[in-house]
Amino acid sequence: MIAHGKAFVYGNNVDTDVIIPARYLNNSDPAALASHCMEDIDAAFITEVAQGDVIVAGKNFGCGSSREHAPLAIKVAGVSCVIAETFARIFYRNAINIGLPILECPEAVKEIKKGDQLEVDFAAGTITNKTQGKTYETQPFPPFIQAIVEADGLVGWAKKELEGKA
Amino acid sequence: MGMTMTQKILADHAGREQISAGELIEAQLDLVLGNDVTTPVALPEFKRMGATEVFDREKVVIVPDHFTPNKDILSAEHCKQIREFAVEQDLENYFEVGEMGIEHALLPEKGLVVPGDVIIGADSHTCTYGALGAFSTGVGSTDMAVGMALGKTWFKVPEAQQFKLTGKMRPWVTGKDVILHIIGMIGVDGARYQSMEFTGDGVANLTMDDRFTMANMAIEAGAKNGIFPVDDKTLAYVKDHSTKNYKVYEADEDADYEQVHEIDLSTIPLTVAFPHLPENTRPVSEAGDVKVDQVIIGSCTNGRMDDLRMTAKILKGKKVAKHLRCIIFPGTQKIYLEAVREGLAEIFVEAGAVFSTPTCGPCLGGHMGILAKGERAVSTTNRNFVGRMGHPESEIYLASPAVAAASAITGKISSPENL
């Protein structure tokens, strides 16, 4: 799979309270959640984001609450993947579980500017900044996590486990 | 090579003699937890994977605590969904409003957590149970759904940082100051993906409530879990609360730690975390002149009896500052009742504070105490992120119940030493 889109750039420690504020968690409808995505740190995000766009951020992206509503809101808003220097662990797990691609790539994070056109090749693990003409390599997922991704997220993996039991 | 306390618990639950950091394992679960915000997202996933019943009706715990008592129609619908699921699955441990509490205060009190357990919960503060020598960690809703169906999940075995505690805390200083101090020291991602293992002679000087508070905030340093050794205080707590079988694990003497920190508890000052990260800590004595509009005392971090007693000690015979709202909310119904019986509730109300039913409400900006634009709160909760308790331009200062109660009286961030 190859994703194309423009970059939205944020700093360190983007927490799940700003990705989707708790005041909207009384609704679990993904589209409703997406309509408030990033609202408290970037009110323009939801009007500017287009299918395939990429969120680029610094250290510890997704820290704080375990709310799966956060990666869900990002995914349903149209974001194809999140590239960060590092991810908070619960967000990392949740993103894999719901099938939101995430990549750790400090070099790319350092150089990507807001609005840069990016191309992300998940199979090859490469990020190409078409605006700046640069390409970055990332570490592929470990095989076990790759298997979860290939099983369409954790639910697919669990389905196989349940079928095995029956 | 030796294993950490966390690794030993995980190895046993994975049916393995030896595991090492970085490995991916499958482990059996002793408890799977969800609340009224995360469970409604888990239920469609549970169905989608073809599951029809939970792995064990006694080991799936659901607590409607976030937006309860129902704050609006949408929240009421969520609570209705999870109640119907609890009835359909005949769950032993579903706790309705009236018997509920804030999940992480409630589960230990109900005796559902004992040393050596492996627990996942769809709430980031699930790490609280490390106070009892259990491995517990926060996960998302899909992980909860899979845990409910299979009774097992996958983990990456964490490395650990050791926090060797010595000495005894100064008057008024509590576990909240210690954990804020540590987060200030290592940062909000200082223990990312790792265990925080608290050890040393100083542990004996921490009450169980201190330990719950400290383990609770391990996630605010990015940790996977925080864990305490099991000692006489732990065993006394377990004896008072639970009939479950437990197993005591100890780290190997040659366990490998990524970092070791030595902390003398007697050097830790009353501490406050400034907006907008828990790592922005300062001694209260250096807080300066910070005027406060609201004080929140309670939550899964600081809503236990130690916390309410400390608050009452400071508020007794005093009045909260003019135009300041002081909201006190206990962790559970049992704590609420004890506070009434001990006369603490009377002290709170006479001081001009609100004494609320247990709820997560104000901590996450849900209900029961939302901040307006530009307002400031001193709060005993766990996060001071942008917009956490209301308007994105409001501010939260995290502190202990002692500092929060003192601040409620003076109307600005204050130390109880100066009252």
Task: Name some characteristics of this structure.
A: 166 residues; alpha/beta; Aconitase, domain 4; seven-stranded mixed sheet; 8 helices; B: 419 residues; five-stranded parallel sheet
Please, could you describe this protein's structure?
- The complex is a heterodimer of chains A (166) and B (419).
- Chain A is of the alpha/beta class.
- In chain A, 34% of the residues lie in helices and 19% in strands.
- Chain A has one domain (2-140): Alpha-Beta Barrel (Aconitase, domain 4).
- Chain A has helices at 16-19, 30-34, 45-48, 69-76, 89-98, 106-111, 143-150, 154-165; strands spanning 2-9, 54-57, 81-84, 102-104, 117-121, 126-129, 134-137.
- Chain A has a seven-stranded mixed beta sheet.
- Chain A is globular, with a radius of gyration of 16 Å.
- Chain B is built from 13 helices and 18 strands.
- In chain B, helix 2 crosses helix 5 (141-150), helix 6 runs parallel beside helix 7 and helix 10 runs parallel beside helix 13.
- The radius of gyration of chain B is 20 Å and the shape is globular.
- Helices cover 30% and strands 18% of the residues of chain B.
- Chain B is of the alpha/beta class and 419 residues long.
- In chain B, 62% of the residues are buried.
- A five-stranded parallel beta sheet of chain B has the order 4-3-2-5-6. Chain B has a five-stranded parallel beta sheet with strand order 16-15-14-17-18.
- The interface between A and B is large, with 45 and 49 residues.
